[in-house]
Design a protein that fits this description.
The complex is a heterodimer of chains A (about 375) and B (about 270). Chain A is an alpha/beta fold and about 375 residues long. Helices cover about 40% and strands about 20% of the residues of chain A. In chain B, the strands form two sheets. In chain B, strands 2-1-3-4-8-7-10-9 form an eight-stranded mixed β-sheet, sandwiched between helices. A two-stranded antiparallel ribbon of chain B has the order 5-6. In chain B, helix 1 packs across helix 7 (about 175-185) and helix 5 (about 100-110) packs across helix 6 (about 155-160). The chains are: A alpha/beta (about 375), B alpha/beta (about 270). Strand 9 (about 230) of chain A pairs parallel with strand 2 of chain B, so a sheet runs across the interface. The complex binds thiamine diphosphate and iron/sulfur cluster (SF4).
Chain lengths: ~375, ~270
Amino acid sequence: MSRQIEFVQGNVACAKAALYAGLEFFAGYPITPSSEIAEYMAKRLPQNGGKFLQMEDEIASICAIIGASLTGRKVMTATSGPGFSLMQEALGYAVMTEIPCVIANVQRGGPSTGLPTHVSQGDVNQARYGTHGEHAIVALTASTAQDIFTLTVDAFNFAETYRTPVILLLDETTGHLRERLEVPAADGIATVGRLKTTVSQGVDYHPYLPREDGRLPMSDFGGAHRYNVTGLFHDMWGFPTENPKIVYGLIRHLVDKIDHNADQMARWKEYYIDDAPTLLVSYGAAARSALHLVENRRKRGEKLGLLELQTLWPFPHELVREKCCHAQSIVVVEMNMGQVLQQVKLAVRQPEKAFLANRIDGELITPTDIQNIIHVIQGKGV
Amino acid sequence: MSVRDYLRERFFPHMWCPGCGHGTVLNALLRAVEKLGLDKSEIVMVSGIGCSARISGYVDFHTMHTIHGRALAFATGIKMSRPELSVLVPMGDGDALAIGGNHFLHAARRNIDLTAIIMNNRIYGMTGGQFSPLTGYGCFGTTAPYGSVDHSFDLVELSTSAGASFVARSTTYHVIELAGIIEKAIAHRGFSVVEVMSQCPTNFGRRNQAGSAVEMLETYRKQTVPLDSEAAQTSPEKIRRGVFVEKKRPEYTEAYEEMIRSATGES
Ligand SMILES: Cc1ncc(C[n+]2csc(CCOP(=O)(O)OP(=O)(O)O)c2C)c(N)n1
Ligand code: SF4
């Protein structure tokens, strides 16, 4: 079979991957720098018999996809900071009701309208903590069109496996960068379908009774079984309850099903880390500059390494601890004030060895920026 | 099937106050469903948050209790995915017209086949009596202690101008009429709006000297007139009841299927 090579924007790679993963329903509201995803869907989904909806705002968009997901569809929305802020309440509803969905946030500078056409990685903590109440969340990122493709498929797979919303934290640079994408063969990446109940019609189905492995088989809403779904704390029937035991059990279930599977969901790439006294930790567009620097300095005999994170939440603390254990200094490269640095400091044995190389002015951090900061950290001046 | 078969008895007793109108709306709704001979499994009910929204827990349909104001957006996703289902969306006046006002307008504009039942008690019942977009100028709420300076929407006019293809109003006093209207609304292909004046003795009645539930019902009887009656002509100050709009307009899920056929080159 001939290989399918394309030259596409990261946003389009994301859209193509969503269809590859089985997307059937997309609802969104236009916002830079994410609109190409919606535009792609508007064209392609109806051709596949799927549905694309442009809703009246981002709140309606996420609510519509949650509704469609419950009926058995793979669903997605895409937005950027302001829209992602609007989605937070419904995101919590999807967490509470355990309805799979994928939300792409192509990050731009914030707060507020911020820098619509410039890059930022300022929403890492919002992805984790944006919706109210104790909860766990899954958020993935990537730095190339190829990886965006792979991680988007992962996002759909995790959403189905763990019955959870999954956030794809892309950024303006990778979203708009056009580059080579090799579209995998149809069976190239495994895709996870919806786990459906085997309980037959007429027999009691408990929508919120986890199996022994913690997973909850679903029944397409509107189909064989009639049940209730609510954002209130609920029992195994989906009926509201304030029983402290059931409340405790549900919140533990919601958090544990994500946190206990952090290893399963950890995705990363590593470059020259074994012998690197200075290890860069980065992700998304920033990791492109970090990798460029590492490869350039290696040619000159300077031992830099890079750990590129692709799973940001649940944060892979164990992995980071292990990969950083030989490094004398760890430099977290990101375009915010140290949101991932915070987590790296929690992960590593000597947090005082972890430093920040960042840019927060809407410009992509460059290899030279990182180099200069490393020099300062090493006491070599700029 | 008897009306009782449509209820989830496991969920009772219900949470509504004695005399609350919302139970009467439930009654009329179930009669309408029974009259239409719909199977429980053909009906989806999506609600938001409020005393009114709790109606979804009590019926043995496919039920989704969502977040405040957004029921129509969830319902749009469900209906688009499964157009063959009847989707009912009961809402409070705050739920539908304040926080959910934008979704309401756009669902009407699309003329998507959903049945919106707005249980208008002119107050935020669940949160304890704050004023709503339908409280009315000069009326009282906990957040309008000197009388509200906000004017109300006319829900019938609003729905009509936004594009709803079925628009009606009734009250909890006129239960038989109400059941008939809800029946028509469900059967209608397109976005249907039924405004039900539903008394909240606890939070509206008490603060507005409207009396007991019985007195509030009596007011509904006295203050409303059938749309096409003589009284409607002679007493224009009275509130009109009945079906205001019932027309054919392209329905959204059907138009979408048509678009899919043209995108896939089938037509
Ligand atoms: C986003 C959000 N804001 C506010 C609330 C609090 N709240 C719950 S119900 C309600 C209003 C209920 O009034 P209405 O929709 O008219 O229904 P009723 O209770 O009168 O039947 C409010 C403001 C909420 N649940 N969510
Ligand atoms: S507060 Fe009002 S609306 Fe709520 S249950 Fe009581 S009477 Fe009904």
